[in-house]
Design brief:
CATH architecture of the largest domain: 3-Layer(aba) Sandwich
Strand content: 15-25%
Radius of gyration: 21 Å
Largest sheet: 9 strands, mixed
Number of helices: 11
CATH superfamily of the largest domain: P-loop containing nucleotide triphosphate hydrolases
CATH topology of the largest domain: Rossmann fold
Structural class: alpha/beta
Order of helices and strands: HHEHEEHHEHEEEHEEEEHEHEHEEH
Helix content: 25-40%
Shape: globular
Strand order of the largest sheet: 3-4-2-5-1-6-7-8-15
Length: 343
């Protein structure tokens, strides 16, 4: 029913596409200007809205470039405090957003910034005493007012952009011809084993230019970590789970959990959901009915849930994720290093 209703919105999608397309034409012909800065910039973004795995790919770059002075710049979606900000020990998901807080929590050696405008964000970063060698831009593919040095475009294996429609009928933020602006394209969230034939088929459907490399990555899950005792890692195999998610696409996470566990309840909230007192009480109430269960959430949701003091006495754990390349990791890393080291 929902899908059928969305198809009724095709005229709106067509109009939206024309507006976005005109904007891109204006930027492509330098009628609308893009700002460029004297710092290496690597963009990780997508054409479709939400759920392609941008955050773990940014973290991959953080680990890859650990010998460089790095900064990340994000919008800070869902935060209450506007404007340009740098993450610090007092930062919360409400003040800077859950994904930037995740970067700051896991990688304290990296300067983490947020700004709705990527241009003013770079200006703010460059005004700091410690100027980074590389700025990693999270979700900025449509921010044409900033000219970036190296662009990585992600598309979800389970929902590739070539099968999608323009918003609001589908999830595309712009027409698929926008892929031409990317330096590389990554098909994310792939199965860990992918045949050469399927990779070739997907590459052909993406229809990138011959010189544009298409890579394939998969998700690797880590060990469960206690939300409030950060040093504790546990094996929850066989435990009954109460699952709390507030991400764009929870299905892969749920599928992973059900390999070794039974899920008695799944609280499936919208992406970047701001948990209310009522939400927290509902979670506690379900746990009180079955105290042999444990509460499990995603790493991104953990950034918001850890601010909920009412949960501190409960067994609540989150599951970190990383991305890995199915093949050609060395080629991808060489492209990144060559760009970073170029004059």
């Amino acid at each position: 029913m929902v899908k059928a209703f969305r198809y009724l919105l095709l005229p709106i999608s067509f109009l939206y596409g024309l507006i976005v397309g005109l904007r891109n034409v204006l930027f492509n012909n330098n009628i609308l200007k893009s700002s460029e800065f004297d710092v290496k910039t690597i963009l990780v973004g997508n054409i479709a809205a939400g759920g392609t795995g941008k955050t773990p790919h940014v973290e991959y770059l953080i680990r890859l470039l650990s010998n460089k002075k790095l900064a990340t710049l994000s919008r800070g979606y869902g935060r209450k405090d506007p404007g340009f900000q740098q993450a610090n020990k007092e930062s919360t998901a409400d003040s800077i957003g859950d994904e930037p807080l995740q970067f700051y929590t896991k990688h304290p050696e990296v300067n983490v910034f947020v700004d709705t405008s990527r241009v003013s964000g770079i200006i703010g970063i460059m005004s700091k005493e410690e100027i980074p060698e590389v700025v990693l831009l999270d979700d900025a593919f449509q921010h044409r007012s900033l000219k970036t040095g190296f662009s990585i475009l992600l598309t979800d294996y389970n929902a590739p952009f070539y099968k999608d429609f323009m918003l609001p009928t589908g999830n595309l933020r712009e027409f698929t011809r926008g892929k031409k602006r990317a330096d590389v394209i990554i098909v994310s969230k792939c199965p860990s084993v992918l045949s050469d034939a399927e990779k070739q088929q997907i590459t052909e459907k993406i229809d990138a230019s011959p010189e544009k490399k298409v890579f394939f990555t998969t998700v690797k899950y880590g060990s469960f970590n206690s939300l409030f005792n950060l040093e504790e890692q546990v094996d929850l195999k066989g435990k009954e789970l109460i699952v709390v998610t507030g991400i764009a696409k929870s299905e892969p996470f749920i599928n992973h959990l059900t390999k070794n566990n039974n899920i008695s309840k799944h609280f499936n909230f919208p992406d970047h959901h701001r948990f209310t007192d009522k939400n927290i009480q509902e979670i506690i109430s379900i746990f009180e009915r079955n105290k042999d269960s444990v509460i499990v959430t995603t790493e991104k949701d953990a950034m918001r849930l850890k601010e909920q003091k009412a949960l501190e006495s409960l067994p609540i754990f989150y599951l970190p994720i990383e991305v890995d390349f199915i093949q050609d990791k060395e080629i991808f890393e060489k492209l990144i290093h060559n760009y970073v080291e170029s004059d």
